[in-house]
Amino acid sequence: MSLGGAGGGRQQLQELSQQLQALEEQKSQIRAGIESLQAEQRDIDEAIEALETIESGSTVQVPVGGGAYVRASVEDIDEVIVDLGADYAAERTRSGAVESLEAKKGTLDDRIADLRESLAEIDQESNQLEERAQQAQQQLVQQQMQQTQREQGDDE
Fold first, then answer.
1. pLDDT, tens digit (0-9, with 9 covering 90-100), for 36-65
2. What is the pLDDT of residues 69-103, one digit of tens each?
3. pTM score of the predicted model
4. Domain 18-147 belongs to what topology?
5. How far is Cα 44 from Cα 120, in angstroms, rounded to an integer?
6. Segments of 10-155 assigned E as strands
7. Rounded-to-integer distance, Cα 114 and Cα 92, Å
8. CA 4 and chain centroid, separation
9. Domain segments of the chain: what residues?
């Protein structure tokens, strides 16, 4: 009495389970990426708000790293250094800096949209695998029931 059919079903279930686990890990990584980009967007929003409200002569707290800040006076708000990415920065006017930050935020919006699209595709693939796993589980249960019935019939 061979259990080859049931063994193959178990193997298929195990493979589907591994694939589902891999998809869950991908989804987790994508969600973390989205959260990171959203945090970056919040930082940009804060920078834009600061640029729009700070005036020349204002006193501000400037981060110097390690959670430390120094008090400083803004000499000229129309001289703003903006990170352009890839270790490049440029001096901009206040309005130019806001425009650069808004453009960067728009790029982040696009990246978030792409990640959400990927997440939706993975969700769809995951749902299909779950359906296959349920079908395989049902087939395995049916095979086991048939095997049990055959064994009981042989005993008689």
1. 999 999 999 999 999 999 998 999 999 899
2. 999 999 988 899 999 889 999 999 999 999 999 99
3. 0.74
4. Helix Hairpins (1.10.287)
5. 27
6. 59-65, 68-73, 80-85, 88-92
7. 30
8. 41
9. 18-147
